[in-house]
């Protein structure tokens, strides 16, 4: 409804019509009551603030008994929500390098086209995959810029195999973005946009929580340098580079359980007791111990998981790829009781 009905006074039946000023057909008039109404959408204060309609009223269909009046319709401005879209380096997606650190910004902009140039409070309200929820924030591209925002890494997402912003695992991310008018929180807009994760170098990752089991019968026998012993150690380089691996220190310390020393003290494991050799090359690398650890004395025996352990060591490893990127990790080396050494009363 636009204003009150047009008033015309006559004892005869009156017929109202719009004769001019309605070029875009935004308005209609009720022929009987003279009530003007909006007839089609698209009224926009930013495009046209005022319309002048020429209204005619005719008595009983008698064209000679008619009058006309010019009616002014003022369009009242309201606060429009912004139109959101992405302007990216290659179209409508943002782009961000995998393994990006906190504060890194994606290429491209989220743009808020707002009729009133209102300041927007930006919010990344949802991310898919969900493990990236809370990973990003949107910030104005420059201080005071109400139109252009950039996506920024908000927290440490890690890198390599365990990284959350990981091209090899999730190259496409979906963002649900909200822009709320800073001065009127009831006015807001939501957009759904794509973030393309770009491939970058990955440091090698020593797979976590690995346990290397060495049988007592092997480690107590004479050493044969170069012989592969124990279960494998897995390292993964997502770029499929070759990786070399080394012990991080020369001494790994004492066993956390039991002991291997003849004097009853826990035997300290050193890098001389073990060596690392490659047993396979590919995206996933397997290293195995290649030298024997010689046990002396009568060790104590402790239950480790489902097996009896003579000793449990924590061994730090450093993996280095062809680009020189390094990854650190720790594996447990467990010397397990060989069943043949079980005699009654020993345990
Ligand atoms: Ca606005
Ligand atoms: Ca990766
Ligand atoms: Ca990569
Ligand atoms: Ca690499």
Write the layout of secondary structure elements.
Blueprint: E1 14-20, E2 27-29, E3 36-38, E4 50-59, E5 62-74, E6 83-87, E7 93-97, E8 109-113, E9 120-128, E10 136-140, E11 148-153, E12 172-181, E13 188-198, E14 205-206, E15 210-215, H1 216-219, E16 229-236, E17 243-247, E18 251-254, E19 268-270, E20 276-280, E21 284-289, E22 302-304, E23 307-321, E24 326-336
Parallel strand pairs: 7-13, 15-24
Antiparallel strand pairs: 1-4, 2-3, 4-5, 6-8, 8-11, 9-12, 10-11, 12-13, 14-16, 16-21, 17-23, 18-19, 20-21, 22-23, 23-24
The structure holds calcium ion (4 copies).
Structural write-up:
- The chain has 347 residues and is mainly beta.
- It is rod-shaped.
- The strands form seven sheets. Strands 15, 17, 22, 23 and 24 form a five-stranded mixed sheet that branches.
- The chain starts with 13 loop residues before the first strand and ends in an 11-residue tail after the last strand.
- It has three domains: 14-74, Cadherins (Immunoglobulin-like, Sandwich); 83-198, Immunoglobulin-like (Sandwich), CATH 2.60.40.60; 205-341, Immunoglobulin-like.
- The model is unreliable at 280-284 (pLDDT under 50).
- It has one helix and 24 strands.
- The longest helix is centred in the middle third of the chain and has 4 residues, at 216-219.
- One calcium ion binds next to loops.
């Amino acid at each position: 409804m636009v204003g009150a009905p047009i008033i015309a006074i006559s004892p005869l039946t009156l017929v109202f019509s719009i004769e001019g000023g309605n070029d875009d057909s935004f308005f209609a008039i009720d022929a009987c009551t003279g009530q003007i109404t909006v007839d089609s959408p698209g009224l926009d204060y930013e495009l046209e603030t005022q319309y002048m309609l020429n209204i005619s009223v005719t008595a009983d269909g008698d064209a000679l008994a008619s009058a006309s009046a010019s009616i002014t319709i003022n369009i009242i401005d309201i606060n429009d929500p912004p139109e959101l879209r992405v302007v990216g380096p290659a179209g409508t997606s943002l782009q961000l390098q995998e393994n990006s650190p906190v504060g890194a910004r994606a290429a491209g902009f989220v743009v808020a086209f707002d009729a009133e140039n209102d300041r927007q409070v930006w919010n990344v309200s949802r991310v898919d995959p969900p493990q990236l929820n809370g990973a990003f924030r949107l910030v104005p591209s420059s201080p005071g810029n109400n139109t252009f925002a950039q996506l920024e890494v908000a927290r440490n997402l890690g890198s390599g195999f365990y990284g959350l912003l990981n091209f090899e695992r999730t190259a496409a991310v979906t963002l649900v973005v909200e822009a709320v008018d800073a001065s009127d929180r009831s006015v807001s807009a939501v957009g759904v946009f794509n973030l393309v994760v770009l491939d970058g170098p990955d440091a090698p990752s020593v797979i976590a929580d690995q346990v290397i089991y060495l049988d007592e019968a092997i480690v107590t026998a004479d050493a044969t340098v170069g012989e592969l012993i124990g279960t494998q150690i897995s390292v993964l380089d997502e770029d499929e580079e070759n990786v070399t691996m080394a012990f991080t220190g020369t001494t790994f310390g004492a066993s956390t359980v039991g002991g291997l020393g003849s004097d009853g003290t826990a035997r300290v494991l050193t890098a001389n007791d073990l060596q690392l050799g490659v047993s396979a090359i590919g995206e996933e690398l397997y290293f195995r111990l290649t030298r024997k650890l010689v046990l002396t004395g009568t060790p104590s025996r402790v239950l480790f998981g489902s097996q009896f352990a003579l000793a449990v060591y924590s061994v730090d490893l450093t993996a280095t790829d062809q680009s020189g990127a390094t990854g650190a990790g720790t594996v447990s080396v467990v010397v397990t009781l060989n069943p043949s050494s079980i005699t009654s009363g020993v345990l």
